[in-house]
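Quick sanity check, Phosphotransferase:
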Amino acid sequence: MNWLQQAVGKEWNITPAGGLTGDAYIAEKNEQRLFLKRNSSPFLAVLSAEGIVPKLVWTKRMENCDVITAQEWLEGRELKPEEMQHYRVAALLRKIHKSSELLHMLMRLGKKPVTSDERFDEITSQLKKNELIDRHEEIRDAIDYLQRLLPVTRNQQKVVCHCDLNHHNVILTDKGQLYLVDWDNAMIADPAMDFGFVLKWYIPQEDWNEWLYRYGATRDSQLTERIHWYLIMDALFYFNWHYERAEINKAYERLADLRKLNEHVSTTILD
């Protein structure tokens, strides 16, 4: 903690902010609060400039080469699951996907667009390595559907995708500002990866068309196929992820989810 104290000054009181990495802290002095993080991506600066995350106050490089960032602390809360249906979430996601500044910055940081073929090859390789394809009919069916739908996912515009759009990462401040935080998994990919996740987990099927309209897209058969391709990919990825960590109950929850997706694709999309 001494390195943090050195960065902000001894008059600040510093406490851990929680989280998985253990690299986030809150600094307090009088009525002031800052959110501190160690070794955040330089991407944070452009996210701040675009108004997508709370304002970046300063960045300091320490003698040990750690980089400390300080963002303004804003009182607020995570969105409730049902609030993800609000048009402001669709508008924020559209702003992100349309931002050339975000795209250029990620590319400057060395990120390259990820194609659906690359993702398909990666997941099949992982599943084969863990000998999971022969064990589960659901996985064999899912891979078959991914292969059959793969052509429609090619040659799509690639944008900056957040890739972890759950309601815990969408913050509503007490002043009504909406922010999307936790950008550690960001990549350049098909935007269907992002909004498909929101649609599946938060938007009733009968409201998909309206939500997509708010986002700025028109639903047709090809878009529906792309959405479900990424939903199947997501389910396979997390099944394998939990399996590798011996989290068997969570892995089988994903397998059950995959089974439902397969049934839907089989009866309504590929029928």
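Posting the structure with no commentary besides this: The longest strand covers residues 32-38.
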